[in-house]
Specification:
The complex is a heterodimer of chains A (206) and B (616). Chain A is an alpha/beta fold and 206 residues long. Chain A contains seven helices and seven strands, in the order E-H-E-E-H-E-H-H-E-H-E-H-E-H. Classes of the chains: A alpha/beta (206), B alpha+beta (616).
């Protein structure tokens, strides 16, 4: 294993507008919640330092805008992500139906080296609303979808009450880590000086 | 060669006077706070730009924005400002970024109400860009949060220095800062290197990881513009300039309120990138191609000092903007002897061999039919002098030899060469490229070169008070080393009283030789602060002279409250001279002619002649 160095994990949060992406991030990082809705514009970024098995990590959390008009920012944002979090609102059917699109769009734009095994985590948010009475997406249904997409871990959360948020992000961090590739081979060439002297200015790239 | 230019002489009728012309003085006294927020706001408008251009504005989310706004909170008003801009977007954005333009220049005005927004980028009150507040105990304790007090976060090598202290401090400075720290925001000049996925690689100040949120913001701005096929080069925000340089998967950013010209700052970013390439080669690009998540910070482990010393040299070493190197003044025969010794080394099949003393060249041999760019020499010298390992070995054994793979970015950015570095003294070293076995030290000792070098170091080079009155007079020896009144300088800094007619300092750059010579500092500019200010003035002058369409003869004369600056550019050389602010223009011009003549008279002592491997 390569030393005790700190690692930075890039985490992208995706999902329809208003499902609570910003709220989840703020609950996790700042332990704060606001009832007020302010649509995210473009993207917001927060960082959080965590320790896991005696190693230090920095989670660089990219909270993206759910509103469709921001979607063309995709490639720029998704590149080099270590984990992708898909969020839906259990009280809104359409937000669940969109998960498929979000996932596919992410895989196209980020084009990870191993799309089959890229780590996603799905969160069903706002389970507190109305004591669960206005719920339209059942846990069973959500879990079935996750299973069909290669056993994506699923968490039911409430950003408002802070329920399960910690556990969900813990899983996100672990999955981001699992996806850490074997050390990339960095093998630069070396110039053969004797030959470089003969070849007329072959090496010169001015 | 330089001698051709002796016919050229500076006369007062071909100059353009720009006395009193000063760089625009910005009345805003913004701190970096506003700039950072301006950048973040820029991101918002970038986002809006696309939405207006390419998408319909109807939000498809099922949750309509709530429009009420809490009163009294600073955060809220900032948020509101951004939301407001949706309505008026088309005009404000048209001004902000225009597609199909190579240069994107954005002027961001300070809010009229003067409120400073907090650095946090999302709309919740009281939060930080990077935050780690204590956790309430949650069921599992596998992942534990850390407090943000820094002590546990391994900020190794924190050296706090008084900003007035101009001496360069080895290693990372102010590692405990992040973009939320007031002190961080007050720093005049920031440098960042990040990857195209927004992962921080290097930051001059502060801890890279704590700046991850800020680095993500920078990445988002750059990538967005890149995706549109454009390039973001410069953002102006009040007094700050944000300069971007994209090198494949590596992004470099400078945020500065030093009023240096854009071209100079961009040149500094190029050098910073060159330094990275010198350490790693551009093969890292391939790693990013295969894996955009690639984290290259471990490959750069322990090189903080190399970058910070390079950045420090931007404020004292004119080689960083002149793109030329300088020689240690030596008697012609001494340099020839050194050259002969190096030639023996070169004959063993190395690419080149240099003998240097600090950042000054004693002699250089080799490299036929190829070229060693002065920037490569600068980066190589900086790498050797600032790397812990080279020196450490020296202190342990009093003489050191080491091998290091290095890449010369202007020679071949893709591949390593092997540098053999031999420290002969604390400040005196020599490198060969490729392994050779030779008793260089013994040979040099026999030749008396080391003594001559010591002598030159203590006596200094060209002193303005020695400027000959009549260069053509027969009793002028034509040598720096036969003046009998030369006294050893103290601490390597020669303090004189200033030259004739209020001459304070000059820099002469020979274009064919790729070399420059700089006079010793005289008392009116003996303090490092004054020297830094003078270099900045030269830097500005250099940038303006190299702007565009400069003819073969061009001069500039500027007078401000600090100096009279005179610049003279010909096909053969460039002269930059500083005079007392009250100096007479006609006299100053005559003095400049004398300086040029003097340089020519002693050129075989101040320049490395003949063996110019640079212009084959
Ligand atoms: N009751 C309840 N409300 C929530 C919860 N999470 C978020 N909300 C509310 O839902 C609204 C939208 O939340 P945001 O976090 O801003 O939604 P978002 O996904 O970031 O939306 P966009 O930025 O537009 O993509 C806000 O009014 C929140 O207060 C939750 O767990 N329970
Ligand atoms: Mg949001």
């Amino acid at each position: 294993m390569a030393s005790r160095r700190r690692m930075l994990l890039k985490v992208i949060i995706l999902g329809d507008s208003g499902v609570g992406k910003t709220s989840l991030m703020n609950q996790y990082v700042n332990r704060k919640f606001s009832n007020q809705y302010k649509a995210t514009i473009g993207a917001d970024f927060l960082t959080k330092e965590i320790q896991f098995e005696d190693r230090l990590f920095t989670l660089q959390i990219w909270d993206t805008a759910g509103q469709e008009r921001f979607q063309s920012l995709g490639v720029a944002f998704y590149r080099g992500a270590d984990c992708c979090v898909l969020v839906h609102d259990v009280n809104v059917k359409k937000s669940f139906d969109s998960l498929n699109n979000w996932r596919e769009e992410f895989l196209i734009q980020a084009s990870p080296s191993d799309p089959e095994n890229f780590p996603f985590v799905v969160l069903g948010n706002k389970i507190d609303v109305d004591g669960g009475n206005s719920r339209v997406v059942s846990e069973k249904k959500a879990k079935a979808w996750c299973a069909s997409k290669g056993n994506i871990p699923y968490f039911e959360t409430s950003a408002k009450e802070g329920f399960n948020v910690e556990a969900a992000f813990e899983c996100i961090a672990k999955n981001a880590l699992k996806n850490e590739p074997e050390e990339e081979m960095y093998i630069p060439d070396t110039i053969d000086v004797a030959r470089a002297r003969q070849q007329k200015s072959s090496g010169c790239e001015c | 060669m330089t001698s051709d230019s002796s016919s050229a002489s500076l006369s007062s009728d071909d100059e353009e006077e720009s006395a009193g012309q000063k760089p625009n003085v910005d009345v805003h006294t913004n701190s970096i706070d506003t700039s950072l927020d301006a950048i973040e706001n820029q991101l918002s408008s970038i986002a809006l730009n696309t939405s207006i251009d390419e998408r319909s504005v109807s939000p498809t989310g099922y949750h309509e924005p709530v429009s009420e706004i809490e009163n009294g909170s600073l955060r809220e008003s900032v948020r509101e400002r951004r939301r407001n801009s949706i309505g008026e977007s088309s005009s404000s954005i048209g001004l902000g970024l225009s597609r199909n333009h190579l240069e994107v220049e954005v002027e961001v005005e300070r809010e009229a109400d003067g409120q400073l927004a907090s650095p946090s980028s999302s709309g919740y009150a009281g939060e930080r860009g990077s935050s780690s507040s204590p956790t309430s105990a949650s069921g599992t304790d596998v992942i534990r949060e850390l407090r943000d007090n820094g002590s546990s976060i391994g900020d190794d090598g924190v050296v706090s220095v008084d900003p007035s202290q101009t001496q360069w401090i080895r290693g990372k400075r102010h590692a405990d800062e992040d973009d939320g720290s007031i002190s961080w925001r007050k720093r005049k000049k920031h440098f960042f290197i990040l990857s195209h996925s927004g992962k921080p690689i290097y930051s001059r100040y502060g801890d890279e990881h704590k700046l991850a949120g800020f680095s993500a913001t920078l990445q988002a701005i750059i990538s967005f513009v890149e995706n549109g096929g454009d390039r973001v080069k410069l953002v102006r925000a009040g007094k700050h300039q944000v300069v971007f340089l994209v090198k494949g998967p590596i992004y470099l950013v400078c945020i500065s309120c030093t009023e240096e010209p854009y071209e100079s700052l961009r040149g500094q970013l190029e050098l910073l990138y060159g330094q990275m390439v010198l350490i790693l080669t551009r093969s890292v690009d391939k790693c990013f191609e295969k894996n955009p998540k690639f984290d290259m910070t471990p490959l750069l482990g322990g090189t903080d000092a190399v970058f910070s010393s390079l950045i420090h040299s931007f404020s004292w070493n004119p080689a960083t903007f002149l793109h030329a190197y300088t020689c240690l003044p030596l008697a012609y025969t001494t340099r020839q002897t050194a050259g002969a010794i190096l030639q023996d080394v070169a004959d063993t099949g190395v690419l080149f061999s240099i003998l240097m003393c600090k950042n000054k060249v004693v002699s250089l041999v080799g490299l036929q039919k190829t070229s060693l760019h002065p920037d490569d020499m600068l980066l190589l010298a900086n790498f050797v002098m600032s790397s812990e390992s080279f020196r450490q070995v020296f202190y342990l054994y009093m003489t050191s030899e080491s091998f290091s793979p290095i890449c010369l970015p202007r020679y071949n950015p893709m591949a390593f060469l092997y540098a053999y570095v031999h420290y002969l003294d604390v400040s005196f070293y020599n490198f060969f490229i490729k392994k050779i076995v030779i008793q260089i030290e013994a040979v040099l000792a026999k030749s008396n070169i080391l003594n001559e070098v010591q002598r030159s170091l203590s006596e200094g080079g060209m002193r303005i008070e020695d400027l000959p009155v009549d260069p053509s007079s027969p009793n002028n020896s034509g040598s720096l080393f036969h003046l009998n009144h030369r006294k050893p300088a103290t601490n390597g800094t020669v303090t004189g009283v200033g030259g004739p007619a209020g001459l304070w300092h000059f820099v002469y750059r020979s274009i064919y030789l790729d070399q420059y010579v700089s006079s010793e500092f005289a008392s009116p500019i003996s303090h490092p602060h004054q020297q830094k200010r003078l270099y900045r003035a030269y830097e500005r002058l250099y940038a303006s002279m190299h702007d565009k369409g400069v003819g073969p003869h061009k001069t500039q004369f500027r007078r401000d409250e600090n100096y009279v600056l005179l610049c003279w550019v010909t096909q053969d050389f460039e002269l930059y001279a500083a005079f007392d602010p009250l100096a007479d223009k006609g006299v100053a011009i005559r003095i400049c002619n004398r300086v040029c003549q003097w340089v020519k008279d002693v050129e075989n002592e101040i320049f490395l002649l003949g063996a110019t491997p640079f212009s084959w």
